[in-house]
Amino acid sequence: MFSRTMTRTAIGALSLGIGAVLLAGCTSGDPLDGGDAGGDAGTLTIGNQAFPESELLAQIYGQVLAANGYDVTYEAGIGSRETFIAALQDGSIDLIPDYAGNALIFADPEAEQTSAEDVEAALPAALEELGLAVTAAAPGEDSDALVVTSEFAASNDLSTIGDLAPISGSVTLGANTEFEPRWRDKLGEVYGFTGFAFKAIDDYGGPGTLADLLAGNIQVADIYTTTPSIAANDLVVLEDDLDLFAAQNVIPLLNADALTDEIAALLDEVSALITTDVLLDLNGQMAGDDKPSAADVAEAWLTEQGLL
Amino acid sequence: MNFLIDAFGFIVDPANWSGETGIGGRLLQHLVITGLSLLFAALIALPLGLLIGHTGRGRGAVIGLTGAARALPTFGVLTLFVLIGIQFGFGLSLPPVIVVLVVLAIPPLLAGAYSGVEAVDRQTVDAARAQGMTEWQILTQVELPLALPLIVGGLRSATLQVVATATIAAYVAQGGLGRYLIEGVQSRDYVRAVIGAILLAALALLLDGLFAALQRLVVPRGVSRGSTRTTKTGSTAQRPSRPFDATRTPVTEG
Amino acid sequence: MTWLWNNLDLVLGLTAEHARLSAIPILIGFAASLPLGWLASRVHWLRGIVLTVFNVIYTIPSLALFVVLPLILGTKILDDLNVVVALSLYAVAMMLRGTIDAFGSVSGDVLQSATAQGFSGPSRFWTVQFPLAGPVLLANLRVVSVSTVSLLSVAALVGSGGLGYLFTNGYSRSFLDEIVIGIVFTVLLALVFDAILVLAGRLLMPWNRRAAVPTRIPFLKAVIPGSAR
């Protein structure tokens, strides 16, 4: 009773349908997934921002947790702090590596602490209001830095950020979009560096920012201190002698509900080993010719430290 | 939905229109980027398309290439060219972006051109040839005017593509209406993102409407709409909603 | 291409995710455009409204939709669902015009003779209109498929972009190879999807292999890659 057309239609539709179901089912996890050593201790989603060091830290924390029985999935390239805080709060992610000073200012814009100890002490209370928690900070720091080429520094006699004040009218600063609302006023208040032009380059001090700096399209760039390109291009980091940017120690930022004592202990153990030199070294490896993935670099380093 | 109201409020406030980073300035930048890209793309695609349509040669290759080009992920091609531009010392500037937008605009322009020429009734062309017109005359005086609606259709498609993709380009080239969107995304400022979305959508719709009108205008007098050679499937068949929208390529790459 | 061999599991995993996140919207786009398109081709005033609404949706930049949908849908910010919904909306918008035209292009004579033979309602749709509209639907679906696969990469900017990850990661490390590999695999995936669709078309519409594509709009044959050749 079924015509040939209907049979064919049915077969065709069925195969498309099966195909769709197969596709939907075959990858239920994130392919950037780390190891899964059983997952009996619980599941955690670890996020990272779209720059190499953030991914590296996410892998370091994630692989340690995975090796201790947690089922870890990763969410890469989340975006700026505004976005990942929201992601932490709504449970899209449970943990993300962040930097102490900027996290503090985000949670409490009036915060005045700048030293590593003060910032670390002030964080838990400030974060609690957002439903977030933090474990021990690592000794390693990666800070925003205003960077110029060595030629520009030499010809304008620049060594501190304050030295930019007299020439601020003729200077263009390049940084992520969110840098301007966060820092323009404070740069004026603390250093008298005002009236500069701003070019938004949303690559976290990456290749575009560097290229524009070297090409002279911008004179000052926000490049993070552990980025290999600073040393590789003889760039000059303008000294932040008035502590505008507070200490930026690496911290694991978590959703308060996701934090347990066991997780804290594991995170603390590995955080203690993350020094600024380690960051510089591992960043350099990722930028090297082989372009190893963050996962591989993290795995090698953790194995070396005996944590895997 | 408050952010919708706030967004509209921002847009209708005249204070936000002035200045280089105002709506007016960014609109101008967006139009310049779009216009330049379309110009370069047209310089390449239109002559090529007309030639292919007229001689009938190279069609297969061109169709294959445009199909493959349509499969290229715009975002990937953008990052590729920007990185190449960086390695050539360009810094973050317009040329790599223009190149990407030109590559994007060529397929629809090309398709519009050759399909326009091909849609001209062969009998008309034969008659012209019989009258002793040279190939060049046939192309310019017979095929081109008759093909104009489809060519404009291709231009319309290309324009929408480029306007939408110039949004992503705002990530690297500083200007254009996409800046509102990107600022909104980076700062998680929904109002800003919606402002960008509204402005871009409005611009796209406006241009689409303009080109639709243009398509109707360029049909040569004496040729009624839709009477380019069609396969006759019945007198009561509905007229297609967009008779000359030759290439439905997506406008949403941004 | 040693990098590729060293990171093959990453690339293949991303390809699978890309396939999943783009296949679903394509299928939804097709399925949803059928009833909408058919209805709109029958009911004249509905056609205008439906086309206008989806026209507007069509012009909203994808990034805006990815960012704003969590607010509208109430989903989590990083939920893949946001991307799937956005891409499905675009897929429907792209399919709709063609679908309406396709159903509308089946001439009244044919429909009347089908009715005269005793077909009515659903069986007339499935045995007469749908098969006749089939080739145009398929041609449009192929364009939608390619576009969706390409568009998904943009979602990498909000963390859900499948192979788009290779673009952001490659860019942040000044690594051209990675970007090229991302482009290549995206194109390959689009080609695979296209082949599947062509195959499905041959299975479902065997009469098309010999007959010319019965399309009302002749230039569709020309511009949709390889459809009638």
Please give a structural write-up.
Chain A is of the alpha/beta class. Helix content of chain A is 44%, strand content 14%. Chain A has twelve helices and ten strands. In chain A, strands 7-6-8-5-9 form a five-stranded mixed beta sheet. In chain A, helix 2 crosses helix 10, helix 2 crosses helix 12 (294-304) and helix 4 (100-107) crosses helix 5. Chain A is globular and about 60 Å long. The termini of chain A are far apart. Residues 24-39 of chain A have low confidence and may be disordered. Chain B is an all-alpha fold and 254 residues long. Helix content of chain B is 72%, strand content 0%. Chain B has helices at residues 2-12, 23-55, 59-71, 74-87, 94-118, 122-130, 135-173, 178-187, 190-217. In chain B, helix 5 (94-118) runs antiparallel to helix 7. The model of chain B is unreliable at 227-254 (pLDDT under 50). Chain C is an all-alpha fold. Chain C is built from ten helices and no strands. Chain C has helices at 2-6, 8-42, 44-59, 62-73, 80-105, 108-116, 121-152, 164-172, 176-204, 218-223. Residues 211-229 of chain C have low confidence and may be disordered. At the B-C interface, helix 3, helix 4, helix 5, helix 7 and helix 8 of B face helix 3, helix 4, helix 5, helix 6 and helix 7 of C.
